[in-house]
TrEMBL record:
Entry's transmembrane regions: none
Domain of life the protein comes from: Eukaryota
Protein keywords: Coiled coil
Lineage: Eukaryota, Metazoa, Chordata, Craniata, Vertebrata
Domain CCDC92/74 N-terminal stretches: 9-62
Native species: Ptilonorhynchus violaceus
InterPro entries: CCDC74A/CCDC74B/CCDC92, CCDC92/74_N
Designated gene of the protein: Ccdc92_1
Coiled-coil annotated spans: 65-99
Protein's recorded name: CCD92 protein
Length: 130
């Protein structure tokens, strides 16, 4: 009976050592897991921040893109208006050039008649003088 008691005490001590060892291992594992959780939370927070910044930049870029598109449309509309005005001015210029050409022709015609009349009168004056 004494031997069984000693053997039983050794078994109890052995089990207690195993339990203490397992508790120590479990504590180290829990500590390492907590550290890993903290590292992953920090990494997640960094990734979330990066994602938020990229979304903000994307929204800002969208706003800039829309503003540029609006400016482009406005500039295109202005360009079309200027081209329309330019076309009208060209038509007006062509019309005025036609009028100038007609006036020059008329002026040359009147100048020829004037010179012919001047020659006749000059010839008449000469005849009358003689």
């Amino acid at each position: 009976v004494a031997m069984e008691t000693v053997s039983l005490e050794h078994q109890i001590q052995s089990v207690q050592r195993h339990i203490a060892f397992l508790k120590k291992e479990q504590m180290e594992l829990l500590h390492d897991l907590h550290l890993e959780i903290l590292r992953l939370q920090k990494h997640c927070a960094e990734l979330t921040h990066d994602l938020e910044m990229k979304e903000l930049e994307a929204r800002q870029q969208d706003v800039l893109d829309r503003e540029l598109e609006e400016k482009c449309r406005a500039m295109e509309a202005q360009l079309q208006e200027k081209e329309k005005d330019n076309l009208e001015l060209r038509k007006e210029l062509q019309h005025k050039e036609t009028l100038v050409a007609a006036l020059r022709s008329s002026l040359r015609s009147k100048e020829r008649r004037f010179l012919e009349e001047l020659k006749r009168r000059s010839h008449r004056v000469t005849i009358l003088d003689t």
